[in-house]
Structure formats: C-alpha cells, structure tokens
Amino acid sequence: MPVRNIAATRPVNPPGVELVLSEEKLWKGLELKAREPGLFVPGMKSCTVHKDEGNKVSRTIVLEKGGEMTEEVTIYDLTIVYFVSNKGHSVANVVSYNEKDELLLTFSIVGGIPVDPTGGAHLKTPAEWNQAAGKFVQATIDRIRQLEKEGRL
C-alpha cells in the first residue's frame, strides 16, 4: 500500500490527568519542540538550528534510522507549528478546542511518517494509520506534561 496522508487528534487533558496543561504551556512545549526536537523525538541523533527568526526556524536533524533531513519550521502563534522537510514530509501540529471547549492537539501528516524509514508503508488500514500518528501526538503531549512537571516550560 502506498504511503498515505493522515491526521490524528488527541485530547490534551483527558479525564483523570494528573497535571492539566493550559493552552499557554502546550504552546510553549510546541515552540520548544520546533527548536529542540531531540527532547521529543526518540532516535534523534542530533539537531542543528541554522536560523531562528522567531516564527521561522531552519534546522537539520539526523535520525538513527532515517538519515538526515533539513526542515523549515513556521510557527503561527498559539495555533500551528508547520514542519516541511526536504524529504517530502510535511507535518502540522495544530492546537484547537472541541465543542466542549476541551483543548486538543492534532498532527496532520503529509507524505508518510517522517521518523519511520518506510514512511509508514507497512500500515494497512486507516485505523492503523490513526494509531501510529496518534502515538506521536500522545507522546508529544506526555513529554510537554513531563517538561512542565520538571519546571522546564
């Protein structure tokens, strides 16, 4: 099956969560992810930020299994962090709210999963794609919550 595009959404503060993240803290975490992705992406060897102009970041990342890629990151305050790689992947991290005013985080992924050497080609069904993409969303939320607990946001 060819690599597909997918979006997955997870609630930031599901019932019973120990530490509730505000929109501000979630956003600070996403901005940190744009500049220090090694805090969020397992298997990343290194990241070099070549240019940081506030809302635009140029960087080169090296993955243990996926080689090297350059990314242009555009930050749209409080709403979207948009990553475009030279490998044909685009990822949007989108902050939103549902009809109950609950904070959500969505990853919209174009061109396959960037940290998977196959881009996700082994995934067969929409449910498998959602689960794979959703793991990245949840891992990001969990990491931001951990960084907040550590006082790093």
Give me a quick take on this structure:
The protein is built from two helices and seven strands, in the order E-H-E-E-E-E-E-E-H.
Task: Describe what you observe in this structure.
The chain has 153 residues and is an alpha+beta fold. The protein has one domain: Alpha-D-Glucose-1,6-Bisphosphate, Chain A, domain 4. Helices cover 24% and strands 36% of the residues. The protein has two helices and seven strands, in the order E-H-E-E-E-E-E-E-H. It has a seven-stranded antiparallel beta sheet with strand order 1-7-6-5-4-3-2, with helices on one face. Helix 1 crosses helix 2. The N and C termini lie far apart (40 Å). The model has no long low-confidence stretch (mean pLDDT 89).
Break the fold down into its secondary structure elements and pairings.
Elements: E1 6-11, H1 23-35, E2 44-52, E3 56-63, E4 67-76, E5 80-85, E6 90-97, E7 103-110, H2 126-149
Antiparallel strand pairs: 1-7, 2-3, 3-4, 4-5, 5-6, 6-7
Helix pairs in contact: 1-2
- Quaternary structure state of the chains depicted: single chain
Morphology call = globular
Determine the mean pLDDT. Answer: 89
The proportion of strand residues reads 35-45%
- How many helical stretches? 2
CATH superfamily: START domain
Give the N-to-C terminal Cα separation: 40 Å
What is the helical fraction, as a range of percent?
Answer: 10-25%
Spatial extent as radius of gyration: 15 Å
- DSSP E strands, number: 7
Supply the CATH architecture. Answer: 2-Layer Sandwich
SSE topology string: EHEEEEEEH
Q: List the domain count as a whole number.
A: 1
